[in-house]
Amino acid sequence: MTKNAFYIIVGLIITSLGLVATSCGDKKPKDEKWTDTYSSGAVKIASDESFSPIIDEELAVFHNRYYKAQITPIYTDEVTALNLLMKDSVRLAITTRKLKDEEMEFFHQKQFRPKEILLAKDGLALIVHKSQRDTLISTNQLRDILTGKRKYWDEVYPGASSDPIIVVFDNPNSSTVQFVTDSICYGKELKADNLMALEKTKDVVDYVSTHPNTIGVVGVNWVGDRRDTLNLTFTKDVKIMSVSRQAEAKPADSFKPFQYYLYTDEYPLSRPIYMILSDPRRGLSWGFCNYLQTYIAQKVILKAGLLPAIIQQGQEVEIKPY
Questions:
Q1: Which residues contact 172 (CB under 8 A, 6 or more apart)?
Q2: Which of 70, 270, 283, 320 could cross-link to 42 by cystine, CB 3.0-4.6 Å?
Q3: CB atoms < 10 A from the CB of 37, how many?
């Protein structure tokens, strides 16, 4: 082979390799809309709106540590949050329940199994106007109110006014509505004639603070006094009811949603908070989910008035009784 022929052949090979590389580069990545990494990039996550104060605090700390990351929360009702997860619009959802069998099967058909990780334990607070004198209530009485069996204050508290009781929720599709339907009313239909659904949790607190005949149902993190690092006091705008599992509520067996009573399971209206992660790439959603399990992130949860689910070995968080 002459030297010139050799160079011609080498030139053709190099040109061919270049064309192959170019054609490969023109192919779009299989998952091109997800370009984030474990600690950088931009993604959205979905969360039940009732947890927005906690998630906002967690994101502030996370973004301060990982300045190349930008996580945008979508605060919505729980139904919408899970729908966004299943549509792959987000890859992390903060909810109060695990996936149902049919929802998990949806992911199985895609050859993927989402992770369901316990984040914290929340207490649903029953709030009333600060002028309300009676603040003890049993779960039986609450069930009667929600199902329309008792509609007036004097049917619950003899000697009270005959005004109708209005129960206020944040959203008709919210996790709070689902909780009282499943856990308090055992699946019985909630009566619409004494129920109201607003748009956001803050709206519920504001409404109850100006309407004496209402009972609001909100997450405890919305009514904690942020100046109290021990979480033993609540906002002065409303009163927090004490709830009993007994047929008749008495001071000795009625509890408020303090962390200690969430820990001992004496407060009846407690619920879990889950992180549902569907991120096969181990990108930014995965990174934030792992961060939420660290000691620093769990301390934020403790400060917010919830019960942390995860405390790292060798590190303790003191939870004091009231």
A1: 77, 197
A2: 70
A3: 15
CB 212 within 8 A of CB 131: yes
- 255's enclosing H/E stretch is strand 254-255
Look at residue 292 and give its three-state secondary structure. Answer: coil
Please state, in angstroms and rounded to a whole number, the distance separating the CA atoms of residues 138 and 117.
Answer: 31
177-188: b or e for each residue (b if 16 or more CB lie within 10 Å)? bbbbeebbbeee
Average model confidence (pLDDT) across the chain: 85
How many CB atoms lie under 10 A from the CB of residue 191? 15
**Residues 253 and 106: beta-carbon distance below 8 Å:** no
User: Tens digit of pLDDT for each residue in 192-240?
Assistant: 788 999 989 999 999 999 999 999 999 988 887 554 555 545 678 899 9
CA–centroid distance for 175 within its chain: 8
**What length is written for the chain?**
322
Quick check: 289 and 273 in contact, CB under 8 A?
A: no
106 and 86 Cβ atoms separated by less than 8 Å: yes
The stretch 78-104 carries a mean pLDDT of 95
The token pair that represents 210 in the structure block: 């100006």
The strand order across the sheet containing 254-255 reads 136-138, 242-244, 254-255
